[in-house]
Write a structure and sequence with these properties.
- The chain is mainly alpha-helical.
- Among the domains are: 89 residues; 96 residues; 70 residues, no CATH class; 74 residues.
- The chain contains 50 helices and 2 strands.
- The chain has a two-stranded antiparallel sheet with strand order 1-2.
- The radius of gyration is 39 Å and the shape is elongated.
- It binds one DNA strand through helix 14, helix 16, helix 18, helix 20 and helix 22.
- One of its GO terms (cellular component) is chloroplast.
- This is Pentatricopeptide repeat-containing protein.
- Keywords: Repeat.
- Belongs to the PPR family. P subfamily.
DNA sequence: ATAGGGTTAG
């Protein structure tokens, strides 16, 4: 499209166009297309030239029809270099003619050309819109202004930028300098105040409020309410409240909500009654806040009675009111009642919504009834309601808890592909938990990276989940790295993150370091919670350092921190580990002295110690005590009981135990099955053991090991061989242990050839073969005087880059003539210390 | 303005 514009014989233009005689020759008028193509694409033209040209062109446009030029070829070329000052100038001039045209020009530049307007232009348009009472549009452009101002304010820490008071300052300057006498100025100031407060720019809003007071401008109730809202959980709430002249329903319900958040529930109820005297009366919203607080504190009955009060006051309970109560009932475990209330919502004139169903689904989830949770979600979809992020998150959580991690990953993908914006890190955190708990740490880390790449910055919880997962798997280095990264992002670790780190240290056996870290936190003045102490106490107990565990326990008591069951359970474990069951038993009684109730873990730990001794009577005694106290045994408990039967030579009773489990609704898991199979193997009942194995739905590598070990133990090596073969043919996943067990057996039996064959398979399949695996074989071969064969393995070891240790050399030396050979082929590899040790051994 | 989703020791 070609536009023509009337020529203006300005000297400026002639000067600019002097390098282009062909253009100047047209003199009175010229083609815009020509100008566009020839002039602007020429590199000769300087920015000064362009600047003059814009001014001329724009003033030319002002004189003729604007709209035409704006869409013209020329303008599109020019707009990339258009300055904010030019636009301000044009808009000011346009105002005299038509404010509407000015607004149109503003929007057109912004929406079609993506032009970023100045503070002045934006505020100019704001005033026009305010004057015309176009509040929606006013709100939209001012909100954008505030947000962009916040982003470009330079002097802030990234995480606090929203709250810095730099953004409002410049806007206020322009407002008070250029727009003081406009009719709509109060409206614009008030809108600015309201929006800054609603965007949680608290400092900015206070600055604006101060300025407005200086200028004697009116502050609307809406703006004040928003400020009040931001201060509702602090003492300053009343200061704001007292400044509000025209208090309304929102003001009162915000105060009630604030008091609830400040844990001043009685004050809230009192205030609600007091506001009843005022002409408007209480609102449902206030009741909702109070009910919600009672529910969170665990007093559903109070919430219920307030629900009745709402009805008595002649108010109508809203969907919120219902949802709050339904949620309270679910948290209290009263799922039936909750479900009933959902059913009668329509009688109260409201319909359940997505939130209602989400609450109900979560309620079932909390009770472990995950299939019913999915059922609720299905109902919701049938009703034509659409799932939201939270619905997906609840399903995701359920799938992960069922162990269906891949299904979880699929759900997360579905969510993204259906265009549901995640908005928060929570769905990813749920997925991270699932991955970490199943040891899929690599995938967790890659999801963590993806989150960052997609602009979802992990928060404290997300970091804690991954750090904890890493520590549990002993990946301490990456954990420390992430911990530092988190701190550098100004995300302060909390007790849970610290706990993860302590756990990592303990699991690596670095108890001294863990204790030092704990002590340093104590002396830095942190009040540590019991969980942190428990982690270290448990670390001591697991390593059999019962004295240290007790010492730290005494520190806990001395500090006035209340221990919990887990603390005592660790002590029980520590005593059991050091074979002091009498003391362990005393700890069980001590739990009661502290007013605590022993848990399944307390009993199971102690039962395990008795079971290892074959003391089935004591196991039974504890089992009855549990039953009397209404403590439900777990799968773990039953496995311990079965193990006890086996060691106590009373295995015949195992079917009885299985029946008992099933009657209690506990499905035997793989560990139970493995325990039974192992027990049957010990008593050489292979037919039953294999029978059990055949019916197992999903045997684990441990199952195979147990069977192979059992067969070898009773000398049935051929059977073990063919079993391993059959497993290899079925291509099931075998662990190293399956091979090494069989290899050892062949060494003992004196069949080094088969041992060697299997050993080579082990290496072939890429297992991590360590010195202990070699020494196990060499030891046994030497004992059987199979020196040549031992030499074979010794050479194999050296060829694989594994250095012999002192013990292995001793063994080789002891078996007669191999001394010289050992020295020749490998001893040089050992350290001088080891060599000295060897020499002293030889002298003896 | 009021409701719903994620982390911890045995």
């Amino acid at each position: 499209m070609i536009c023509r514009f009337i020529a203006f014989n300005s000297s400026k233009v002639s000067r600019i166009l002097s390098p282009f005689p062909s253009l100047l020759s047209t003199k009175s008028s010229f083609s815009v297309a020509k100008l566009d193509d020839e002039l602007l694409s020429t590199t000769n033209i300087t920015s000064d030239h362009k600047d003059c040209l814009y001014q001329e062109v724009l003033s030319g446009m002002k004189k003729t029809g604007f709209r035409e030029y704006l869409h013209g070829h020329l303008f599109r070329g020019l707009v990339s270099g258009l300055k904010q000052t030019h636009v301000e100038e044009i808009m000011s001039e346009l105002m005299d003619e038509s404010p509407d045209l000015s607004v149109w020009f503003f929007k057109e530049l912004r929406d079609i050309y993506g032009f970023r307007h100045s503070r002045f232009s934006t505020l100019l348009v704001s005033h026009i819109l305010a004057g015309q009472r176009r509040f929606k549009e006013l709100q939209a452009i001012m909100e954008q202004l505030l947000q962009e101002e916040g982003k470009s304010t330079p002097f802030v820490f990234s995480s606090f930028s929203v709250e810095s008071s730099g953004s409002a300052y410049l806007i206020c300057e322009v407002l008070s300098k250029s727009f003081r006498n406009w009719d709509s100025t109060n409206v614009v100031w008030d809108m600015l105040l309201f929006l800054s407060s609603r965007l949680k720019m608290v400092d900015d809003s206070l600055y604006i409020l101060g300025k407005m007071k200086d200028l004697s401008l009116n502050v609307s109730t809406q703006a004040y309410n928003s400020i009040l809202y931001n201060f509702r959980d602090t003492d300053k709430m009343w200061d704001v409240y007292n400044r509000i002249d025209g208090k309304n329903e929102h003001t009162y319900s915000t105060v009630v909500d604030g008091l609830c958040r400040q844990q001043k529930l009685e004050d809230a109820v009192f205030f609600l009654r007091a506001s009843e005297w005022k002409d408007i009366g209480p609102s449902v919203v206030s009741f909702n806040s109070i009910m919600s607080t009672y529910c969170k504190l665990g007093f559903v009955d109070m919430a219920k009675s307030f629900f009745c009060t709402v009805l008595k006051c002649g108010l109508v309970p809203s969907v919120y009111t219902h949802n709050i109560l339904i949620n309270g009932l679910c948290l209290a475990g009263a799922i039936e009642e909750a479900s009933g209330l959902v059913g009668c919502m329509n009688k109260h004139g409201v319909e359940p919504d997505t939130v209602t169903y989400n609450i109900l689904a979560k309620g079932y989830h909390l009770l472990g009834k995950i299939s019913l949770a999915s059922e609720v979600i299905k109902q919701m979809l049938d009703k034509g309601l659409s799932p939201d992020v939270i619905t997906y998150t609840i399903s995701l959580c359920g799938q992960c808890q069922l162990g269906n991690i891949d299904e979880g990953l699929r759900l997360l993908n579905d969510m993204l592909s259906e265009g549901i914006e995640l908005k928060s890190v929570i769905p990813c955190s749920v997925m991270l938990t699932g991955l970490c708990k199943t040891g899929r740490i690599e995938e967790a880390l890659s999801l963590f990276r993806d989150m960052k790449a997609n602009g979802l910055s992990p928060d404290l919880v997300a970091y804690s989940i991954v750090i904890h997962g890493l520590c549990r798997l002993g990946e301490f280095e990456i954990a420390v790295w992430l911990y530092d990264e988190m701190c550098s992002k100004r995300i302060l670790p909390n007790s849970r993150t610290v706990g993860a780190m302590l756990l990592g240290l303990c699991q690596k056996g670095m108890l001294l370091e863990a204790r030092a870290h704990l002590d340093s936190l104590i002396s830095a003045g942190y009040r540590l919670d019991i969980i942190l102490y428990n982690i270290v106490i448990d670390g001591y107990a697991k390593s059999g350092c019962i004295e240290e565990a007790l010492e730290l326990f005494r520190v806990v008591i001395k500090s006035g921190i209340t221990p919990n069951v887990a603390t005592f359970n660790s002590l029980i474990y520590g005593y059991c580990k050091t074979l002091n069951i009498a003391e362990a038993r005393k700890i069980l009684d001590a739990i009661k002295l502290y007013g605590l109730v022993p848990s399944v873990v307390s009993y199971t730990t102690l039962m395990n110690a008795y079971a290892n001794r074959g003391d089935t009577e004591s196991v039974d005694e504890l089992r009855l005590e549990m039953k009397a106290k209404g403590i439900t045994p777990t799968n773990f408990t039953y496995s311990v009981i079965i193990k006890g039967l086996c060691i106590g030579k009373k295995l015949t009773k195992y079917k009885q135990v299985l029946r008992d489990m099933i009657s209690k609704g506990i499905t035997p898991d793989q560990v139970t099955d493995n325990t039974i199979i192992q027990s049957l193997c010990r008593v050489k009942d292979f037919s039953r053991a294999f029978e059990m194995f055949e019916v197992m739905k999903s045997p684990t590598p441990a199952t195979y090991n147990i069977l192979i070990d059992g067969l070898c133990f009773h000398g049935c090596i051929e059977k073990a061989d063919s079993f391993l073969n059959s497993l290899q043919e079925r291509d099931v996943s075998l662990s190293k242990f399956a091979y090494t067990t069989l290899i050892k057996a062949h060494c003992v039996k004196g069949d080094p050839e088969t041992a060697a064959k299997l050993f080579l398979q082990l290496l072939d399949r890429g297992f991590d073969v360590c010195i202990r695996d070699y020494s196990a074989v060499i030891n046994r071969l030497c004992r059987r005087k199979l020196t040549n064969e031992a030499k074979f393995f010794f050479r194999l070891m050296l060829s694989r880059g594994v250095s012999p240790d002192l013990d292995i050399c001793r063994v080789m030396i002891r078996s007669s003539d191999v001394f010289a050979w050992t020295i020749k082929s490998g001893l040089l590899l050992i350290s001088s210390n080891q060599r000295n040790g060897l020499l002293s051994h030889l002298i003896c």
